[in-house]
Design brief:
By secondary structure, the protein is an alpha/beta fold. It contains eight helices and ten strands.
Length: 258
């Protein structure tokens, strides 16, 4: 039976995919298992960032899954994507380097549109869903000016910090790759850097740091509540979308070896 290896950066993302699954640790990484009618899901929570995502994907690749997947929430770059909208990657570009010396490279390209059926089904279920390019950045992209510039420069629909790393591991292992992202912060929404700093290495939220920042007025409660609402909306879309994909065995379409 096929095995789907999924890398999710945050515990909340992993829970959205395999909430009812069993949990254990593999090589120190938290993993959730979800049994499907025709296969098994291994969802490993990596924590945010390219390096951690690559290490987590290497662990999953060691189990010889039928496909490697990168999924989770992302920042919106396209102006027409609201929070909760879904982006299915048909290509992934990677942005790396110090400010002023950054470079772009193509990390993965589908080469053909293999995701039309998935997009059509999700659209019929009421999702706003687009297939297009996802940008992976080595540094968080939090401001509206930065988002606008990256969209103009790359035409990417969304930005994350993991997809390119998982795509690279899948290519090295000769495995198919699939990426599904749900937009959290929209293209014109600023994410305070202080909020990003409340994420721990494993992706868990440091709530005491959030409270400290609110009390010191480093974080504005109104902004925090708006971002929290968008995050919940993105997670709900992610959970529902993966439920539909698993229920209809749609991931089988992406499992052809490349």
């Amino acid at each position: 039976m096929p095995v789907v290896g999924i890398v999710a950066a945050l515990p909340a993302e992993a829970a959205a995919i395999a909430a009812a699954g069993t949990r254990q640790h593999i090589a120190g990484w938290p993993v959730r298992y979800r049994r499907l009618q025709h296969g098994t899901v291994m969802c490993l929570c990596s924590g945010p960032g390219v390096e951690r995502a690559a290490a987590a994907a290497e662990v999953l690749a060691g189990f010889n899954p039928d496909i490697l997947v990168s999924t989770g929430v992302a920042g919106g770059l396209a102006p027409d994507l609201p929070s909760g909208a879904l982006v299915i990657a048909d290509s992934v570009v990677e942005l790396s380097g110090a400010p002023g010396k950054q470079s772009l490279r193509t990390a993965w390209n589908c080469g053909q549109n293999r995701h039309e059926a998935i997009c059509r089904l999700l659209a019929r279920e009421g999702f706003t869903v687009r297939s297009g390019q996802v940008l992976t950045s080595h540094e968080p992209v939090l401001g509206r000016d930065a988002k606008r510039a990256l969209h103009q420069q790359t035409a990417s629909l969304a930005v994350d910090m993991e997809c390119a790393a998982v795509a690279a591991v899948s290519a090295k292992a000769g495995l198919p790759f699939f990426a599904l992202r749900a937009v959290c912060d929209t293209f014109d929404q600023v994410v305070p850097h202080e909020l990003y700093q409340c994420l721990q290495d494993d992706g868990a939220i440091n709530y005491s740091r959030i409270i400290k920042n609110i009390l010191s007025r480093t974080l504005i409660l109104k902004e925090l509540l708006a971002l929290g609402l968008n995050h919940r909306r993105a997670l709900a879309s992610l959970k529902k979308a993966w439920g539909i994909i698993f229920q209809n065995d749609l991931f089988q379409m992406t499992m052809r070896r490349q």
